What does this fold into?
Amino acid sequence: MSKAKWIACSLLLCVLAFSGQVFSSAVAATPKVVVLELDGIVSPASSDFLTRGLARAVEENAVLTVIEMDTPGGLDASMRSIIRQILSSPIPVATFVSPGGARAASAGTFILYASHIAAMTPASNLGAASPVSIGLGGPDDKPQAGTDKDPDKKSGGDTMTHKVTNDAAAYIRSLAQLRGRNADFAEKAVLDASSMSAQEALKAGVIDVIAANIDDLLKQLDGRSIKLDNGQTVSLQTADAEIVRITPNWRNRIMAWLANPQLALILMMVGIYGLFFEMTSPGAALPGVAGLICLLLGFYAFQMLPVNWAGVALVAVGTAMMIGEVFLPSFGALGVGGIIAFVLGGLFLTDTGIAEFDLSIPFVIGVAIASGAIIMLIGTMAVRSRNLKVVSGKEEMLGMEGVVASVVEGLVYADVRGESWRVRCNEPLSPGDRVRVVAMDGLTLQVTRAGQGAAIRH
It folds into this structure.
């Protein structure tokens, strides 16, 4: 190869290498935007999904995380967990109430206020963030004017409701002050359950952007400077960003499936049925194993839900009373009392104001009646099976009749149930005599002479 050709090849290789580096840099420099979907109630499942999604966005070196939200609200603990992740995020988080017709009610309003960027679609709304407390306590005695129980206060008459409402109002006001948003509406959303449309929210300084879709949102956010909670200020480059959507995995889907009070109650009842059947019919194994698994899943679901444990106790006591009706002569008192306790427990179990977390009266009554019927059926079958005559083994032979077949050198043999048995009797026997089995000693039957008119049972 000549020197000129060698120089030309070298230059070509250098150009190709430089082009590859430029292309790699261009690919690496393409910004990423991670989109997480929050559709439905704010629950432990959605909290887990968003927590993992925000961590994934950091790993992907995303320039922005967008929470695409449509929620009627949800649990306070799950909401606060999500907000803590947003506040500690090293990259900006935008909450986008989408698609059209979506809402950010109750817990969704808090999440919207906590985000670095708040955005909505034109036909969406937010607000109605008044908390509903759940627990063992009930309302206090008559409210007294001039105290925390003043009935004129908008937060409610009893002390606990007043404390919870004021705490929520202070929390959302602090988030509004942190993000420089309308704090007065935030407080009204909690104290008065006020709501607002997207256009009204933009005009009142509650949100930052109204966008038709994700692409429109990213175009409007391009070049915007965002101050993070660690004091760092970043400039968003989102106009041509790559959108990475992260969907819930199987774990999140199972958690969301279990976080249902109706399913939790049914799982608990199926678990009790299985264990009850196993106790009344030992050795079946499958009902006991399935019952134990269902019972544990039910308790795990209750642990995720905002349940009133007094309601859970009433459901358990009602079920125990219905079981007791099968074995105790209470003339229906235990059964009726068990159904009443079960229904009351189901009604007290949850009271969130969110349809997905509350049990309806028809559902509770239906489950109570079905539970009573199933338990009575299983119990009746178990009692009857205990009273039935044994049809196998040694006990089966007792009472059976046969015919003496032969007498050989003092040994008597009889045909019983089509088989030849050696028999022993306290009186002499001859071939053709009918005998009845009264005892069994090894392979020898102790018999007595049967009545002449008795029929032989095989």
About this structure: Residues 22-28, 134-157, 452-458 have pLDDT under 50 and may be disordered.
